[in-house]
Amino acid sequence: MSRRRLAVVAPLAVLLIAVAVVWLWPPAHRWVFGPGPEANQIVVSGNIEAHQSVLSFSNVQAPITELPFDEGKSVTAGTVLARVDDRVYAQQLAIDQAAWVAAQRQVTVAESNLAAARSTVASDRLDLAEKQRDLARDEAQLASGAVSRQTVDLAQTAAGQSAAVLARDQALVRVAADNIALAQANLETAQSRVALDRVTLSYTTLRAPFSGVLAVRQAELGELAGPGVAIFTLDDLDHVWLRAYVNEPDIGRIRLGEDARVTTDAFPGQVFHGRIGFIASQAEFTPKTVQTHAERVTLVYRIRIDIDNPTHALLPGMPADATLALLPPSR
């Protein structure tokens, strides 16, 4: 073998030997590639996810007058995130409150009318009783000739008129009672309108439904806000999770509540603690984002690993790995 050819072959042979040693000799493999998963562990990968809520105004449409926060701001539940011009809704509330007061007065007037009608009926009864006594006395005196037949006829007419007045005023009592019921129904309607106006007026203020971080601000001062018009996207970073997939042969060796060690490239060497919060009951094919057909046709189970994130270090979309301990097959 020529010296030149030996100079080319010798380094290649050394390289092949080195590769073989690194690949086949466990201590060298771990030194180069780092410690791999143990036989009783699996490593799953995925992206960090979090509850995201797109916030908008409900049932109101008006220009934005207050927008105090920018993206990245941490807020607590109930914090005012935005306000719109509420003058139209406040005026509608004032109008309906005035109508409510008028409806209350109508009820008072109707109750007074009923009381007056009942008093009139009581007077009518006394008058009818008197007229009936006069008629009975005249009829008794008619037999002895003390009064004429005309006097008796006049007494009968007076008694009949008194009975008719009583019947009329009793009907007016029923009308007055119906007017009270109608006035009370109008009052309830006015109360409902005021309550609805107050709810609508409250919609002019947008508050954070939960504590989190404002991930996206999608509006500016002066813009017309309305139902379906996004103002902020709020992320709940206190409760994040890793969505991952476990191969079918391994699904029987993990369990709900099992601890998981989560790591990310963004924080090398730092371990986040999590636990399995969900295991799908049915298998599915590997998600189509996997490029090769051989991997896509593999049956997997979707799992969710809930992760403690008190410092909000983990953010949605961040790639992460989780190490899970495998239980013995018999369990």
Q: How would you explain this protein's 3D organization?
A:
The protein has helices at residues 3-24, 26-33, 87-144, 149-202, 293-296, and strands at 41-55, 62-66, 74-75, 80-84, 205-207, 212-217, 224-225, 232-247, 259-263, 272-279, 284-285, 299-308, 319-325. It has a six-stranded antiparallel beta barrel. A four-stranded antiparallel β-sheet has the order 5-4-2-7, with no helix packed on it. The model is unreliable at 26-30, 32-37 and 290-294 (pLDDT under 50). The protein is 44% helix and 26% strand. A hairpin with an 8-residue loop joins strand 9 and strand 10 (272-279). The two termini are 62 Å apart.
SS-based class: alpha+beta
Quaternary organisation: single chain
- The stretches of 5 or more residues where confidence is low (pLDDT under 50) are 26-30, 32-37, 290-294
Q: What composes the largest sheet?
A: 6 strands, antiparallel, barrel
Strand order, largest beta sheet: 1-8-12-10-9-13
- The rough form would be described as elongated
User: Got a strand count?
Assistant: 13
Strand % is: 25-35%
Portion of residues within helices: 40-55%
Query: Any idea what the radius of gyration is?
Result: 44 Å
Separation of the first and last Cα atoms: 62 Å
What is the element string, with H for helices and E for strands? HHEEEEHHEEEEEEEHEE
| Distinct helical segment count | 5
For the residues shown, what is the average pLDDT?
Answer: 85
